[in-house]
Input
Amino acid sequence: MPKPGLTPKNISIGAALLAASQLAGFTPASAQLDEIIVTAQKREQRALEVPVSLSAFSGDALQRAGITDVRNLFYVAPSVSFHGSVNSAGESLRIRGIGSAGFSNGVEQSVSTILDGVVTGPSGSGLSEMWDIDRVEVLRGPQGTLFGKNVSAGAINIVSKSPTDEYEAAGNIRYGTRYESTRIEGVLNAPFTDEFKARVSGFFLNDGDGTVENVILDRSVNRKERFGIRVRTDYSSGPLSIDVSASWNESDDICCTRTFTRTDPIAVPTTAIALAGANNVTISPRNRQSISSGLDTERTRTGHVAIEGAWEFNSGHVLKSITGYRNWLQRDRTDADQLPIDLLDDSVAKRDLRIFSEEIQFLSPSGEKLEYVLGLYYFNQRFQEDQILAGGFGGGVSEQSLPLVKVNNAAVFGQATYNFTEQWSAFLGARFLWEEIEATGARTGNLPIPAFLNDQFNDRSAEDTDWVGTAGIRYFPTQENMLYFSFSRGYKGHAIDTSIGGPFFTSTSLADPVLDPETVISFELGSKNSFFDGRLTANLVGFYSRFKDFQASAFDGTSNSFVFRNAGIVEVMGLELDLVANPWEGATLTAGGAWVDGEFVEYEGAPCTVGQTAAATCSAATGGQDLSGARLNENPEFQFTVTARQEWQVPNTNDMRVYAFGSFAWRDDVVFDGDLDPLTTQEAYGVADFQIGLIPNESVEIVGFVQNAFNKDYAFRIIDAPLNTGAFASYLAPERTFGVELRLRTP
Output
């Protein structure tokens, strides 16, 4: 394996894109690219040593690029996609086209978000603002061996900044003109003693304007107001260290209103078309005007605690404990019909997610012939939901569902790497797990829709034991090049569809609300390389994954609800390429992208599109549609990013510098919905961002920026409009935004 000090510097395309905008001075042409240390295998390593397809991003670089929300990582991370929704409970991230979507607290994500070693849980709990972050690691492919439960598609590992050994104060303010958006961040760091250090950080975000205009209420909507604070302490004395991270963040958003953007030529939505026309709103892909008579709002309160204690023995072995607790309280109010009439204007939901986890690790010393980690894991989750559909439909109606989902998961795991020589090594890991899920719930009300049967109660549970694992070889032909081949098996446990219109509450439905576990086998062949004394890195990964009993979801326009079911077999294959270079003094160039080919190999009984239903070519009675052999939804086949940054020293000054930065990201067309309705297709698009910066000294940075410079209209998601069969609605991305940012820090 590479010798210390001689390992080439390595950084992913996304990391390089962002690292290029860091405050530090320009990198001379003879210097190596910056390196980010990762913990993708539970110990600190250089990225080149890790036989996993990953992108690593420094927190400072993400912040300077305006990426301060987990949802926005898809702008910079290859193979990552974002699934938008009316609120965070329905939002999700996908990796290599694989993810979970829909409103059900019994269905977990295929992509797990981890904060300071603690899993954030299902639904949108982990999709939140980021501040004072040390790094973000995007790990692609099954990661369940080392990263807890239900990580069949990948993991987002977020690590906040630890206290440092120096007193520090820093802050920044960022203002965007288009939406009058202001974001303020600050941090104080204090080493009180040699043993005890503390760090306090926080942020505040407020939008004065929103991305959508509601013409009925005469106000701007889709606006954010968010706040967060984190306290992190480090204590170390001899072999003992204790790290405590505690954070609290809130959101009070007027969000997320969708707009009518398309109509089906067969199942014509006459009511939606007539009401839009009556209010001078044109239904089109560029429509940013809402005709909703109700206001969409969301309020969240999130507390997160991670306590890590470690004891290092004289032998160099480390015994570590990571204790986690997370409480996510979410409240939303939605105008379900999005029309200027009161059908279901007063639909509300309350969600209370509580998670406790404990992980014990025993790690061998690094740099030995045999490196290993052994561990025990326990996870307990309680997720209560209270959802009410209410409004003037039929003269005042309401429907209430109260599902409660409890999950227990326990596991024993281990992974070892044996270094045969400095060039050859092999690794092997496995996790043996037990999981139990139980859902209870009741539904009452008088909603006059046949799919909703009242006074229903259900109690379902499932239990399973299974395993996940990884194995592979790693070869260093030179000190600056690494090749690896790996095999992984991933697992995502049973799911229970507790959505208000799903089979859990509908006794006449033939569907089973309990979904089988999702399993995957995956192969990767990768090459990580550094050339020209670290001035050029080139990483290439090829992969193939086969998912069995893939837990698919789609919005069923005929029943106005999400449908969850096992989709037989899904195959995904592709290539991921990263290139980064320092070609001359002060310049950083990057290029990279991904080709991901996803297919439903076997998927019978998929939901019908509204057009198929209207044309009587498909129905639930005939078993739905057969999507076997069809392209996977929410998976852009091609995507790439190109960036360039040039920094200059200002003549006749000691340390004043200026820089220019530009990036262009392009994504292929994508079909959003799981029924593959072509009317949910987002056409291919490209987004360009630019920055001009002035660095008078090491304490000050002034930046002017423009995001979405060419004002490209594109959607985070396109769906069937609830209660408006034949109409389609979009969650549109922000328009062109100019802005300035001021960053200050102690010398």
Notes: The longest strand covers residues 456-478. Residues 1-30 have pLDDT under 50 and may be disordered. The chain has one domain: 13-745. The helical segments are 13-19, 59-64, 270-278, 610-614.
